[in-house]
Amino acid sequence: MFTDSEEALLVQGLVKRVLIELSNTPVGVAAYTVGLDTCVEKLMKLLNVKSNGARILGLHGMGGVGKTTLAKALYNRLVGHFKHRSFISDVRETSAQDNGLASLQNKLMKVLPIREVNAGAIRETVDEKQVLVVLDDVDNINQLNSLIGNREWFYEGSRIIITTRDREVLSKHLVTEFYEVKELDSSESLQLFSYHALRREKPTGTFLDLSKQIVSLTGGLPLALEVFGSFLFDKRRQKEWEDALQKLKQIRPHNLQDVLMISFNGLDEQEKCIFLDIACLFVKMRMTREDAIDILRGCGFNAEIAVSVLTAKSLIKFTEDNILWMHDQVRDMGSQIV
User: Which residues form the AAA+ ATPase domain (predicted)?
Assistant: First the structure.
């Protein structure tokens, strides 16, 4: 039997262990990925957690190519090596808001052992602590200057990962490793498309040739393959696929926004209205699924069904903590329509 004090210590130890395990919980990555493991292994060698010096990795590539997915997968592999870590999403969008950059600085300071903030930027070196930081979707050098400054601010062994569409943002005096995230090849594209459209590794029969033609028009962008594949998931007649292929042939070659628009045009009028409300308002408010449905239901919409349809078509998603989320390229399409 334990004494009361011994039992209290055991409970405290258990709680501490649970909190540590929870903090090590990986961030959510796409349900199905192709070619991701190979990229992660290559980048793990570049980052080499056993080596000294602060290493800063810049992941650059066009929108929808999978930079965030790769950054999340890397973070999940690295997180167990670092006591102090932070994954900062949507830097571009947050920085554009009032006091947005300051809020990101505060978010970093809550988890990283920063000693001083000076002149609107984190200026002091980390006090003998290795840190892991991901800055996702950076589009301005000022954001980097304000959030991470230079390598000398971080203790030996720290690792910083930056994702951006603009290679020029990644200055050579700051970034130590550069990696361009490229489109999937034809085989990988077919595999990813097949999963979302057919829920299998490879199309068969008459759908194989149609799938190959569709994939060749998407430009190997994972986002386009996911959204267009999800658009076709509930369509099982060959004629429906042939019609979809003809629509793809009419758009500008490898234009992501045009591919996404085909999926939007396939929605009914109520679903379109809800999609636009979410794109232009709801995602900025970081609301839960339940709150979004309550508001939409209050507006007279069949919200539960519509949200399920938009989720099935990969136009909206929900994070691990049930927060409504939309890829910035999909959101931009909604804004352009409005």
Answer: 53-188
